[in-house]
C-alpha cells in the first residue's frame, strides 16, 4: 500500500472511530452510550416524589396538580417530557420552567439551578416557609439549606440530603431515600473553592 | 492490492454515516424510551453511567461567569493523554507552549515566553497554596514540579491578570490545581512506569475517608532517568570539547512526598520535592561534557487551612503556611567547582471572607501577609574558598483585596476587584480588574475584561552579583506591570462548546537582563516595553459515548516597543488537537494528540523552524479489575525540533527528544 493511501485509510479509520464512538447509536464495539445526566436526574426526581410527603396546602384538593418548577437556566431540555402529566399519589405532575427572578410560590417542588446561587439564601427561606421541596445539583447547595442535592461519583448520579433543612420545611422524607443518600449534617469541609 | 485498498476505502466510507443516526441513549430496549425511564427504580438509576456533557457541566458556571477566560483540565484527561510533566499538560491549552533546555521547563503564554525566564509571570496555586518561591519568584514545572500528576483532580487555567485577587506573579495567567481527595481514592494506588532513556518511576498513594470524618491522602514517589545517552551540540564541535557530544550527562531524578489530612473545618497539607538534574548543555560557560555540572532544587510546604461555610452562604477561609525552597548548582570551571546556592524560607498568613449581599452581590474580601524571613544567595569556589556572593535578605509584604460580583439581572454580570500590595522595596501598588459579562442569547456569553497586574522584582534580580566579574546588583528595581484588554465570546451546547478571545496586552517596565555599556556588567533593569495582541479559540466536544475532543488555535504577535522587533521565542501560530476515543465500553481508550508550534525567532534573530508533533496513548482499564495500563508514544513521527534557550547557553537552540515511549501500570487495592 502506498504511503499516501495508507494515510487516507488511517484518516478514515480514525474518523470512523470518532463518529461511531461519538454518536448515540445502539450497542456495538463501543458499549452502551452513556445517558444524559439530566434525563437520569429527571427520573430521580420522579422517583423521589413517591417517597416524600409534602405539607398540605390550603384550598388544594387531594388531586390537585403537583407543580415542579425548574428555576433559572433550564438544563433539562426535554428530559421531563416522559413525566409530564404522570400521577404521583394521585396527583398529576406539572413541570414548568420559571426564569430567574420570577415568582415560584405556586410550585410544590423547586429545582434550583446553579444560576440561582445568588438568591439561594432567600429562596431557601421562602421554600421552607411555604413547605416546598428544594432540589439542586450544585456543589455546596445542600450545606446552604437545599434539601436534596445531586452530585456525581464515578460517572454515576448520587444525592445528598440535608435533613435539618427538610425538617424546617415540614417535608417528610422516607427512610428508603435516606438509606440511599449521603446525609449532610452541618457545614462539612468542602475543598471546592 | 489496489483493489483491496479501494475496497477498504469504500467500506470505511460506508460505515461513517451509520452510527450518526441513533436513538435515545439509554436504556437499550425495544420499548418506548419514555416508558422505560418511568419504570426505573432509584437503585437502578444509581447504576446508570452518565456522559460528561459540555453544556451544563459541573464547572460551566465557573467558566462562563468568571472574569477571565478559563480552560479546565481534569485528572481523567491527564490519565488518558499520558502526560508526564505539568509543562506537557499545560501545553494542551490554547495559546500555551513550553520550551525545555534540558535543565528546566519554561512556559510561554500568549506569545510571551522569554528564554531564560523561570516562569515568574505565571502564578500557580495548589489547593490555594502559592507555589512560586521567594528567591527567583520561579515556578518549577517539569520534573522539578512539587506534585505527581496522578494526584491532580483538576487544573483551572485562567488567562490574563489575576493580581486584583492574588497579588504578584499573577501576570499572564493563574493556574489553580486541586488535588484528589481521600474519599475518592478509597485505598492504595501503586504505580510503576518505565520509559525510553532508562526512565523508571514508582509511586504509592493511600487515601481514605474514615467513618468519623477524617480524610487522608499520603503519597510518595521516586523517579530516575538516565536521560539521552548522547547529545550533540554543534557549538561545541571541537576536539577540546569532545566534538560537541555530551555523553551520559542528562540524568534526571526526583523524590516526592505529599500528605493531606482533613477533619471538620480543618485541613493540613504538606508537599516536598527534591529534583537533581545533570546539566548537559554547559550553561554559564561551564566545562563541557562533565557529569559534575548539576542542579538540585528542593521545594516544600506545609499549611494549615480552615474553611467554614455558613447557612447563609457566607464563607470564611484562613491559611497559615511555611514554605521552603533550596537550590544548589554545581558548576565546573576548568575543573574547579563553583557552588551557586539559594535558600528561601517564608511564612504566609491569609484570610478571606466571602458572601452574598442583598441577593445581587457576591463579594470576597481578604488579606495576605508574607514574612520572607530567609532569602539567602551564595556563590563560592569550593577549593579556593573564594566567595563571590554572600547575600542575606529578609522582607515582609502584605496585600488587601476586595471583589464584588454584581448580578444586574437578565444575565448581566459585573465583576470588579481591587487589590493593594505593599513591598518594603518599592512601596505600594494598586491593581484592579473589571469584567462585564452578559448573554445576548440563551447559550451565548460575551465578556469584556480589563485588568492590570504586576510582578515584584525578585531578590535574585535585585541582589545577585559576582564581585563585578560579570554581573552587578540593582536594588532599585521597580515591579513590572501589565494592562490587558480582552473580549470573549462563548457558546455552549449540550455536547460541545467553545470560545473565541481577542486580546491586547501592554507590558511596561519589563525586567530584563542587559549589559551596562559603562562597565560591561550584566544587570537587571526596567527597560522593555512589550505589546502583545492576538486571537485565540478553543473548542471542546463531548460525545454521548464518552468521546471527547479539544481543539485550540492561537494567532499572536508580541512586539518590543522600544526596538519594534518581534519577541524571540514567540510563535505566531499555535494549534493543538486532542481526542479521546473509548472503545469496548471504556475498557480501552485511544488518545491521539497533535501539537503545532509555528516558526519563532531565536535569540539571535534567526528563524527557528515550526513543527508538528503527535503523541499517542492507549489506556487499558477494567479488563483485569483495579489494573490500569497506559502505553504512550511521544513524538510519534520522530520529528526533529529545537527550542530557543536563554543567554546562559552558548547554544541558540537546544534539540528536543525524538520518538520516546512510556509504559505505566497502576494497580489499586
Summarize the structure.
With 193 residues, chain A is an alpha/beta fold. Chain A has helices at residues 3-22, 37-50, 120-130, 163-168, 175-180; strands at 52-53, 66-71, 87-88, 91-98, 109-112, 133-136, 148-153, 156-162, 172-173, 182-184. Chain B is built from nine helices and 35 strands.
What's the Cα radius of gyration of chain B? 26 Å
Summed up, the domain count of chain B is 1
Poorly predicted runs of 5 or more residues of chain A: 187-193
Strand-residue fraction of chain A?
15-25%
CATH domain fold name of chain B: Maltoporin, Chain A
The separation of the N and C termini of chain A measures 55 Å
CATH class identity of chain B: Mainly Beta
Q: Tell the overall outline of chain B.
A: globular
Shape of chain A: elongated
Major sheet summary line of chain A: 8 strands, mixed
The helix content of chain A, as a percent range, equals 25-40%
Q: Looking at the chains present, what oligomeric state does this protein adopt?
A: heterodimer
Percent range of helical residues of chain B: under 10%
What structural category characterises the helix and strand content of chain A?
alpha/beta
Topology:
The complex is a heterodimer of chains A (193) and B (669).
Chain A: H1 3-22, H2 37-50, E1 52-53, E2 66-71, E3 87-88, E4 91-98, E5 109-112, H3 120-130, E6 133-136, E7 148-153, E8 156-162, H4 163-168, E9 172-173, H5 175-180, E10 182-184
Parallel strand pairs in A: 2-4, 2-5, 5-6, 6-7, 8-10
Antiparallel strand pairs in A: 1-9, 3-4, 7-8
Chain B: H1 2-15, H2 33-39, H3 42-45, H4 60-65, E1 70-74, H5 75-81, H6 86-91, E2 96-100, E3 105-109, E4 122-126, E5 129-130, E6 152-159, H7 163-166, E7 173-179, H8 182-185, E8 187-195, E9 199-209, E10 215-225, E11 230-232, E12 245-247, E13 252-263, E14 266-278, E15 294-309, E16 315-333, E17 336-357, E18 361-381, E19 387-409, E20 412-423, E21 427-441, E22 444-455, H9 459-463, E23 480-492, E24 496-516, E25 521-542, E26 548-560, E27 573-583, E28 588-597, E29 600-601, E30 607-608, E31 611-621, E32 627-634, E33 642-644, E34 653-655, E35 660-668
Parallel strand pairs in B: 4-7
Antiparallel strand pairs in B: 1-6, 2-3, 4-5, 6-7, 8-9, 8-35, 9-10, 10-13, 11-12, 13-14, 14-15, 15-16, 16-17, 17-18, 18-19, 19-20, 20-21, 21-22, 22-23, 23-24, 24-25, 25-26, 26-27, 27-28, 28-31, 29-30, 31-32, 32-35, 33-34
